[in-house]
């Protein structure tokens, strides 16, 4: 990406800020570049040809590069939650004041515009780092800039997401303590569902998403935002099938396995929610979890409604929660039972989604202590069964059934039988499946 040029008519100084500087110092590719302009007014930006896009504070798009330029600003808390802020953006606001409002020291570093290069590279001598961000990068520590961190509960979610991305970073003890205080004060209870899902979805797609939930648990936020998930820790499973024993640990292993396989968001969310029902298993039957699948489905519906989870994620998660046990045991099913299982998964109408169901089940099987490389032959067998069943000419089967006087469900039975016969013949011809 070519370096953005700052129109000479803008008074003051322009700085590259935030994630671009952080990533460059970490030696990572710089994706998006954000800029802060110190000493300018909104009118000066408009006169220079910038396009105003900020609704709550002055943000402008560069007319050629379309990168964002924000006027230096300060913020003051006016109400609970993350929307209760008064913004002050005047030419007199300094760069240091603007950087002070940011969440973490590693995100509160700036570099002068003329020192930035094509890939966000710059001369380290021109870096402005008033809050020790470079030292924390060197020590791999995530630390809040000022106590004002506590004014925005979204920052807890953002920090947790960064923990999932920067897997060799730790959270400063004083920052964990501050987040615990925020949770105790009820700040996270003011977060709107859409914002919670937005941050969770981003964190699920990071390199090691389990670290996000570890941070949320450490400060008590997970119990407020996702109590259905939080209660899984400490719930035992049979060590014969789950060497890790703890259900919460198992779910995190499953989730990280999905990340290792590069699974899409819907699969990762399905992994997160597939065993929620184990958290409500009566204590007197532990470590068995009979019927946890249906309990998981009910809890998932509650979570998805509360967080307004997108339909594709919610529907996939429900199928995986309901059927993962049956899919694991599918190696012993005959052809007719396989057809019924495929129908329950809606695999004939949604074969692409069924492939995601199988990937989530693979992650579940491999998300156990010491078993991450265990083969999952069920996926190949079920995939082959679906392929064989889809090759059946259902239209001609239906026409023949109708000619024989069949109506309604009877026609479906003819199709079921034909699919089962095709699966039986095909699997017999390739017994490895």
CATH topology of the largest domain: Hypothetical protein af1432
CATH architecture of the largest domain: Orthogonal Bundle
Radius of gyration: 27 Å
Poorly predicted spans: none
Question: What are the defining features of this structure?
Answer:
433 residues; alpha+beta; Beta Polymerase, domain 2; Hydrophobic Seed Protein; Hypothetical protein af1432; 3 domains; seven-stranded mixed β-sheet; two-stranded antiparallel ribbon; 11 strands; 48% helix; elongated
Describe the structure.
With 433 residues, the chain is of the alpha+beta class. It has three domains: 1-143, Beta Polymerase, domain 2 (2-Layer Sandwich), CATH 3.30.460; 153-225, Hydrophobic Seed Protein, CATH 1.10.110; 237-385, Hypothetical protein af1432 (Orthogonal Bundle), CATH 1.10.3210. It has helices at 19-25, 42-47, 95-100, 133-139, 154-165, 173-184, 193-204, 210-218, 221-225, 227-230, 247-260, 265-273, 292-307, 311-328, 335-344, 351-366, 377-390, 394-403, 409-429; strands spanning 13-17, 34-38, 51-52, 59-61, 68-71, 74-77, 85-88, 110-112, 127-128, 141-142, 170-171. Strand 3 and strand 4 (59-61) form a beta hairpin. The longest helix is centred in the C-terminal third of the chain and has 21 residues, at 409-429.
Task: Summarize it.
It is built from 19 helices and eleven strands. It has helices spanning 19-25, 42-47, 95-100, 133-139, 154-165, 173-184, 193-204, 210-218, 221-225, 227-230, 247-260, 265-273, 292-307, 311-328, 335-344, 351-366, 377-390, 394-403, 409-429; strands spanning 13-17, 34-38, 51-52, 59-61, 68-71, 74-77, 85-88, 110-112, 127-128, 141-142, 170-171.
């Amino acid at each position: 990406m070519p370096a953005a040029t700052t129109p000479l008519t803008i008074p003051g100084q322009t700085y590259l800020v935030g994630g671009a500087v952080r990533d460059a110092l970490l030696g990572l590719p710089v994706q998006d570049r954000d800029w802060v302009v110190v000493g300018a007014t909104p009118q000066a930006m408009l006169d220079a040809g910038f396009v105003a896009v900020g609704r709550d504070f002055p943000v402008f798009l560069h007319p050629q590069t379309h990168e964002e330029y924000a006027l230096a600003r300060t913020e003051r808390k006016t109400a609970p939650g993350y929307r209760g802020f008064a913004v002050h953006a005047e030419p007199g606001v300094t760069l240091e004041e603007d950087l002070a409002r940011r969440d973490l020291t590693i995100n509160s570093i700036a570099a002068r515009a003329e020192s930035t290069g094509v890939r966000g590279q710059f001369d380290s001598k021109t870096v402005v780092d008033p809050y020790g961000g470079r030292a924390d990068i060197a020590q791999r520590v995530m630390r809040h800039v000022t106590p004002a961190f506590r004014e925005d509960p979204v920052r807890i979610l953002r920090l947790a997401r960064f923990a999932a991305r920067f897997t060799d970073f730790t959270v400063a003890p004083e920052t964990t303590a501050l987040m615990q205080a925020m949770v105790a004060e009820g700040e996270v209870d003011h977060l709107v569902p859409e914002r919670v899902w937005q941050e969770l979805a981003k964190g699920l797609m990071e390199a090691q998403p389990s670290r996000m939930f570890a941070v949320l648990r450490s400060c008590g936020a997970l119990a407020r935002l996702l109590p259905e998930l939080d209660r899984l820790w400490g719930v035992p499973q049979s060590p014969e099938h789950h060497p890790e024993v703890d259900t919460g640990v198992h779910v995190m292993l499953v989730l990280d396995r999905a990340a290792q396989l590069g699974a899409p968001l819907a699969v990762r969310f399905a992994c997160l929610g597939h065993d929620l029902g184990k958290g409500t298993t009566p204590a007197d039957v532990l470590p068995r979890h009979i019927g946890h699948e249906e309990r998981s489905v009910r809890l998932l519906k509650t979570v998805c409604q509360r967080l307004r989870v997108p339909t594709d994620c919610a529907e996939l998660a429900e199928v995986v929660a309901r059927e993962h046990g049956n899919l694991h045991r599918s190696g012993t099913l005959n052809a007719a039972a396989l057809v019924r299982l495929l129908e329950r998964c809606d695999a004939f109408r949604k074969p692409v989604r069924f492939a995601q169901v199988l990937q989530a089940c693979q992650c579940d099987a491999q998300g156990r202590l010491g078993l991450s490389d265990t083969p999952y032959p069920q996926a190949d067998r079920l995939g082959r069964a679906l392929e064989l069943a889809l090759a059946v000419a259902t239209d001609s089967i239906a026409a023949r059934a109708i000619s024989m006087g069949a109506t309604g469900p009877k026609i479906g039975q003819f199709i079921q039988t034909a699919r089962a016969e095709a699966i039986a013949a095909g699997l017999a011809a390739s017994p490895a499946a």
